[in-house]
Amino acid sequence: MQHHKVHAKAMAAIPYTLYHGTFIHTPELDRLEIMNNALIGVNQKGEIDFVSSEYAGGSQEEAIMFFEQKTGESHSQFKYVDTSKDPLKFFLPGFIDTHIHASQYPNAGIGLESSLLDWLTDYTFPMEDQFTDTNSAKIELAKKVYSKVIDRTLRSGTTCASYFTTTDPHTSNIFADLCLKAGQRSFVGKVCMDHNETYPSYEESFEECQDSMSSMVKYISSINPHNETLVRPIVTPRFAPVCSRKLLKWLGSFASEHNLPIQTHIGENKNEIKLVADLFPECDNYASVYSDHDLLTNTTILAHAVHLTKAERSLIKKHSCSVSHCPTSNSFLTSGEAPVKQYLHEDKINVSLGTDVSGGFDSSILTIIRQAILVSHHLAMKSNDETDVKLTIPEAIFMATKAGAKAVGLEHQIGTFEKGKRWDAQLIDLNSPNSIIDIFDWQIKKDRKSMSDLLGKWIFSGDDRNCIKVWCNGRLVVDKTVDEWVFIKH
């Protein structure tokens, strides 16, 4: 595909910005850190220059003086974002969605009567097949759907997502362009499958997959801004039942040769697991199918993982793979309840969160946080020791941010507010216009207990209307407010 200029938010210059307010993140799995009246400096590369949780100032001038004392530097112009006087606003790291099918977005909320394998044949493959033609109508369909899902996820606070597109390289490249245009950090996975017996019109040959993967990786590598990598390719064998052994082996080799991450599905549905056992009788289990074809690495994302055996969990841990927990989809398609608390604490597996649109009916990771906690409560109802399986709010936020960063191989760049990391963040306002959260006067305090309670209110009662601004790599990519940024001449 011929490269063309993308007029993108991702190309915009980044001014030095000081952020003053309350910052909430999870530097460790079970530790929620709330920094009140803190000051964070973000430089022109979008990197966090410093984090001061003991900042005592309250004015723009004091913030500038503090910055100069802290860094020994000075700038002629700053942006200053001050939310410190509003107790109902706080900054949170941007959400990271580690499993979402962009092409399936029109089907969100459809197919409740189906289980996984029927749902794929009746709804998913026909929808994705509409993106595999180069005529103008199909191109416009792809642009419309892809633009909408990128916009919707960004406006819900998702600053990074690992996407499945379709088998078509042309529209997959268009999707990469649209991610860059919107300014979202993205992993673009062109679906690979050469053995789709249930819907044979929607597959590609082994040779076609080789050609399309090579061209797509080359194209995506050419479109990023100078000295930045916002959009990346990711090797995407859809799942074992629709891939030949030859294709699986080649994809494992291709990922290794080009140092690319991998994403696929595992153990979502019991009938799917039986199908895999029938198709790959020489393999010990579902996970070993991928292991035997060199597809389990420390940058492999395994979606769902609802029904894992002890041997599979050990194999996943051995290869340092990550799981993408998709509780909304698992419930919608009656796939099961993944015991993620066990994966996290007993098996020491990195577990992130995925919307799995359109098996998942909501593209917001906030909904997935809520559902992950509730699914763990359902598991607790069946357990003799309820505390062993119930997820906490810090654990769920960790899964949506720092664990997601590790899953996509960016744990040193995003996921928390730490010096040297990128400013991928969202500003939450519990009193935003049209907010459905009611806060009472006596609940508004600056102490840790009150802030934790307000955080819980947001998780269980809030929605995307509370996410009023979103930054990716230091750039403002979503602004739902009407006020202007404050520029400071110094």
TrEMBL record:
Pathway: Purine metabolism; guanine degradation; xanthine from guanine: step 1/1
Catalyzed reaction equations: guanine + H2O + H(+) = xanthine + NH4(+)
Cofactor(s) the protein requires to work: Zn(2+)
Stretches assigned to the Amidohydrolase-related domain: 92-477
Keywords associated with the record: Hydrolase, Metal-binding, Zinc
A Pfam family this chain is assigned to: Amidohydro_1
Molecular function terms from GO: guanine deaminase activity; zinc ion binding
EC number: 3.5.4.3
GO BP terms, alphabetized: guanine catabolic process
A cellular component term, taken from the record's GO annotations: cytosol
Domain of life: Eukaryota
Protein's recorded name: Probable guanine deaminase
Organism of this sequence: Meyerozyma guilliermondii (strain ATCC 6260 / CBS 566 / DSM 6381 / JCM 1539 / NBRC 10279 / NRRL Y-324)
Lineage of producing organism: Eukaryota, Fungi, Dikarya, Ascomycota, Saccharomycotina
